[in-house]
Amino acid sequence: MSTGGPAGKVLVRAPDDAAVLAVARAAAATVGAELRPAATADGHALARELDRPGVLTVVSRADDVGWALVAEAGKPVLLVPAAVVRVAARLDRVLAPLDGSPAAAASLAAAEAFLGGELVVLHVFDARAVPRFWDHPAHAERAWRHEFRARWCDRPGTRLELRTGDAPDRVLEVAHEEAADVVLLGWSQCLDPGRAALVRRTVAEADVPVLLVPTDGDVP
Amino acid sequence: MADPPARLDRTVDLVVVRAREVLDPARTRRLVAALSPARLDVVLLAGNPDDPVLAACPRPTGPGRVQLRGPDGGWARELTADGPRALAVAARVPVLDAVLADASARGIGAGLVLVVLSRRGDRALLSEGTRRCVVVAAGDRHGPLPAGTARFPGPGAVAALLSEQLGRRCRRRVPALDPDPAWTLREPDPPPERRRVVETLTTVAAGGLASRGVAEEDRDPAIAPVLAAGVYRGRGAAQALRPLPRWADLRLDPAPGATVRTLDLRTGVLLREEGSPGPGTFRSLRVASPARPGVVALRAEAAAGRLRPGRVPAAAEHGSPRGGPPRRRWATTPSGAGSAVAVAVGQRVGRDRGVRTVERVGCYAVGGPAPRLRDALDRLSRAEAAGFDALLAESRRTWAARWDDVDLRVPDDPEAQRGLRFALFTLWGLAPVPPDAELAVGARGATGPGYRGHVFWDADVFVLPALVAVAPGAARAVVRYRIARLPAARRRARAAGHDGARFPWESAQDGEEVTPHRARLRGRTLRVRTGALEEHITADVAWAAAHYAAWVHQPAFLAGPARPLLLDTARYWRSRCTVDDAGAAHLDHVIGPDEYHEDVDDDAFTNGMARWNLRAAADLLERLDPGSPEPTAWRSLAGRLVDGLTPSGRHEQFAGYDARRPLLAREVAEPPVAADLLLGRARVGASQLIKQPDVLMLHHLVPGEAGPASLVPDVEHYAPRTAHGSSLSPGISAAVLARAGRTEEALALLHTGLALDLDDLTDTTAEGLHLAAAGASVQAVVQGFLGVRVERGTLVLDPRLPAAWPRLEARFRLLGAAVRIEVDPAGVVVRTDRPLRVRLGDRAAVRVVGAGHLGPAVSGRRA
């Protein structure tokens, strides 16, 4: 039952950063939450603040503090890349790359509060994740698409886009094509060398905010 | 303290017990008398047939059998209503092995047999063969027991066990299933993403009517639970299999948590049970009767407050039932442009203390534009009169006979063994079909809605050559489906300005072309050109008719019903070919089986199949109409049709193929790989990478049309260039590589083909089983590793086995005979139930009557 009040809090780190503040306002408007400045500028402390009941996310620049925050966060964190050039009034158009793993799909459920608008799911075929068989361009595509949706993103109103090639390239490309307001990425919070290539590239180059959603699984 | 009552809490189908334990006391004797009417078999062991105690044995008064046997296996009697009848016994076969063999012939596996040990020394009755039997020790006089044997002390234990079994039968408890891992597919509660895959894998089917393994309480399954081959809805390219009213519907509250599905390939039943069995846990067992195609039956049980009868067929969607017999509900589908279906379902509710049982029997009448509701109701009445237990027993017997007749046995490769049996099981789901019926085998059969149920060349050259060895009548029906659509094929040829008949690449109810025109790939919309250009289907259809006729040795079929098919397809090629100034004939603008290369000229497979079609039609017409001028023209054209044979002795796949950019499959990714998805159509098309066998398919189907000694050079060239991006590819590649002597690679490919659905390698098994992969896998063994073919009524074989398969036994139908071929290091043995001419490799043909030892196989030789 709705009480008419805010659904929770969106914390903003460095509210004097115009881009960060704009993203935070958009996030708060999207999830119907109250916008509050974070009480600390320390990444580890921010992660603990995020853990408090009612806090939905923290909005931060993708700087050292931001990376320290996301590495420990137990909830979604909105990172604002340096390349952000446009911030919508609401983050209604979400692009969510899914690699067909349970962990990646779980990121959608973990970010449920942000999925009230339009969701575009992107799956990228690359040498690591290309189907072994593709019998017929029309029937196979329909069957594969149907089954992928049934398994990983069976939400009404979801659109599935398929691309081939380098996953970070395609994510950035489709985010632009689709005029996404935010890119949602599930990740395993591991920043070891060779890991999180998609997260690093997207955060480095996206021109829209990136919602990083911690998952238990081993998302590359 | 009193002993706990002896009970198994499960149902068995045969009891083996010492005669003295049950025939002495009057009460037990009455129990024995009650077993036969309850359809429970019993084997009574006694020291000799003249043992006076046997005189007290009640004669059977029902379908349950009573046998009397010596514990040493030395004698056996079947007790009938007319008295005892001697049974043949084999020397030195332990009694329980003989009992199990006899039960197996009725579809009763060892796991359904209760062995009661009651004497010191009875342990000696047990053997390796009895390890899956339910073994208990009753009474107090038994000796040392195997570990894990249940013990029921006390004088009344045997009576209590028999009494329990009678009670379970009378109160319609759910029967058990023999959990033999070699024959069962066990699917523990699947995660959501695999649920639909498991529903597909646990389909039970007969006569082309398939019931997916959908949970009975699932009110809104994502995929239609019941489909039938050839029953479509819609018009034009939108024709698709029609979802049929469901029959296996129950209400369960609360719904089961984790359930395990077990599909028994040996008896064709699906058991579903909650993970932790207990007195009120949910269990269901269903069967699609192979003895009464269209009849389906289910029995379920759960705690009384939890299980309620399910819905009857959804009338709102499928028509309105009005009036009619009690306890029956029915529905009919609208006929529309396609076939109609009538289904009638009867339901019966029972109780066993705190357990409620529900039994549902359904009957589908399929085919024809008018729903045959009366037919469905009549057959339902007969099935209900027989009862669930009789339907189950009948089904078990039918399956036992099937597996006795047709099987592929590779005892040294359990993984392949299970895969091959699953493939055969899948093919059996298409049978039986009535005489003169037609069978539209869609790419996924009726096991799911994939490919909309459209019929491709999969049916003609992948499924049919396997099906004709399994169920020749069903294979005949596949050909009849094509014959019945000749008028549409003629219209298509005429519309393109050609003579004869051109079959559509995708076909459904009306035989018109139903291939989609567009697809999306990598975010772009693409033209789909297979409907326009993949013309080899026309020759494939003709080949299937001829292959059927040769395999069953019915030349009259080719000269009769299939004659117009063979002749009109040849007429099509005659008008379709172009002849250049030098007199060479060409087929331009086609797509071969390798769909990575579109709009090519002189595809080796298409040309080879057209050449075969022209020559086969000429052979037929010369025989039937010696004065006809057409055969001469056809032969001349066939002789001039470009074959692509290069000076190096191999075939160029199509004109200009060798000039494309060299690219091997492994340079792209480890095959199988959908290379077109990865690289894009343009890059793949500009390269030598191929999707599936093209030239090699020519070697597989019509080796006589391939250049002499071209198999090995063709395999060496094309195998490394094959991405196997089609599910059709691994099985046929395995067959061809086996013929070329590359048996280890062939076996690896066969394993891929067998795992295609079992491991959901396509990620689309949810939409149905790939019937062509099943057929290709069977072909890989029969035509590939065994080298079986038919030449003018002679069985020719040339086994080449991989090292991992020192032994192979194949049982199948051929030339009207039930044939068994056994290959092992000692040699090749052929057994047949009717005289057969057989040739091993290049040796002289011999006439085999009964069994023939043909000597050692020719192994390791390369073609």
Question: What is the chain-wise order of helices and strands of chain A?
Answer: EHEHEHEEHEHEHEHE
Shape of chain B: globular
Biggest sheet strand order of chain B reads 5-4-3-2-1-6-7-8
Tell me the distance between the termini of chain B.
77 Å
Radius of gyration of chain A: 17 Å
How far from one another are the termini of chain A? 38 Å
Question: Helical percent range of chain A?
Answer: 25-40%
Task: Describe the structure in your own words.
The complex is a heterodimer of chains A (220) and B (863). The N and C termini of chain A lie far apart (38 Å). Chain A has helices spanning 18-31, 43-50, 64-72, 102-110, 137-152, 167-177, 197-205; strands spanning 9-12, 34-37, 55-61, 77-80, 93-97, 118-125, 158-164, 182-187, 210-214. In chain A, strand 5 (93-97), helix 4 (102-110) and strand 6 form a beta-alpha-beta unit. Chain A is built from seven helices and nine strands; from the N terminus they run E-H-E-H-E-H-E-E-H-E-H-E-H-E-H-E. The radius of gyration of chain A is 17 Å and the shape is globular. A nine-stranded mixed sheet of chain A has the order 2-1-3-4-9-8-5-6-7, with helices on both faces. Chain A has 220 residues and is α/β, with parallel strands linked by helices. Chain A is 35% helix and 23% strand. With 863 residues, chain B is an alpha+beta fold. In chain B, 32% of the residues lie in helices and 20% in strands. Chain B has 25 helices and 36 strands. In chain B, the strands form nine sheets. Chain B has an eight-stranded mixed sheet, sandwiched between helices. An eight-stranded antiparallel sheet of chain B has the order 9-16-17-18-19-23-22-21. Chain B has a five-stranded antiparallel sheet with strand order 24-31-32-33-36. In chain B, helix 24 (743-758) packs antiparallel against helix 25 (771-785). Chain B is globular, with a radius of gyration of 29 Å. Mean pLDDT of chain B is 93; it is low at 314-321.
